[in-house]
Amino acid sequence: MEDGEAVVISEVTAGYGRRTVLRGLSARLPRAGVTAVVGPNGSGKSTLLGVLAGTVRPSHGTVRLGVTGRPGYVVQRDAVSDALPITVRETVAMGRWASRGPWRRLTAHDRSIVEECMAALDVAALAGRRLSTLSGGQRQRVLLAQGLAQEPELLLLDEPATGLDVRAEQHIADVLDRAKVRGVTIVHVTHDLAAARRADHCLLLDGGLLVAEGPPGSVLAPSVLERAFAGLHHVLR
Questions:
Q1: Do 66 and 81 belong together in one domain?
Q2: How many whole angstroms separate alpha carbon 129 and alpha carbon 179?
Q3: Is the pLDDT at 49 greater than 80, yes or no?
Q4: Which phi and psi angles does 106 have, rounded to 5°?
Q5: Whole-angstrom distance, CA of residue 226 vs CA of residue 24
Q6: Which tens digit of pLDDT belongs to each residue from 120-170?
Q7: Residue 157 falls inside a structural domain
């Protein structure tokens, strides 16, 4: 692993049960940068995040993380059940479990981090509200605050801006830019080509295979998308 790399993925094959999703995928992700993962539905984007997070175990190949601590993993807002009787503050505080454990009382330092992360995502005024009562955009910002509260060196995001308005998207982009400046490596799945073009690095997947990797200007060029597979530039917006 070279100094400028945070993640090295080597010939990874992974899936669920007998269903293979990723097929011999290899890639190198830059440290303290933003990597966008793009591709049509079913191409393996979320599975790749699961492999990096450690929730999906590869059947073949290796993943080397050049970071300390566990990755922070922010799922899509729809993955969190409305049945959970949990407030915004409690949700964000769960991010501290990565360092404290779920049964230990939070310290003053932990509580300070929770408050800072809620403020950064502009959800502090919602702290006492049940997560289930929030709009989709509010819930997504709360989940991102939880991810940041883990203080991870590697932050994994599954479509963090889907369904948000332009102002909310820009707010999240600004928060992630500040995290990158602090040295956080960010990997995010997106269907939004504009968001992918703002990244430092890009992976284009199709059918569990890596079609292209490199600077977004090269990977997302119309000629590359057209060569990769017909219709991708219509699926992505």
A1: no
A2: 26
A3: yes
A4: -70, 140
A5: 22
A6: 999 999 999 999 899 888 888 999 999 999 999 999 999 988 778 888 888
A7: no
- Per the CB < 8 A criterion, the answer to whether 7 and 65 are in contact is yes
Residue 217 lies in a domain: yes
Whole-Å CA distances, 193 to 76, 104, 130, 158, 232? 18, 42, 33, 15, 11
Residues 201 and 230 in one domain: yes
Distance CA 77, CA 138 (A): 9
CA angle 146, 148, 150 (to 5 degrees): 80
Tens of pLDDT, residue by residue over 81-95, are 666 789 999 999 999
Neighbours of 155 (CB within 10 A): 24
87 lies in the same domain as 41: no
Which pLDDT band, with edges at 50, 70 and 90, does 40 fall under? confident
Say whether 150 sits in a helix, a strand or coil.
coil
Distance CA 76, CA 62 (A): 26
In whole angstroms, give the CA distance from residue 152 to residue 161: 20
Cβ proximity of 145 and 92 under 8 Å: yes
% of the chain with per-residue pLDDT over 70: 91
Query: What is the domain extent for residue 112?
Result: 72-151
Whether 236 maps to a domain, the answer reads yes
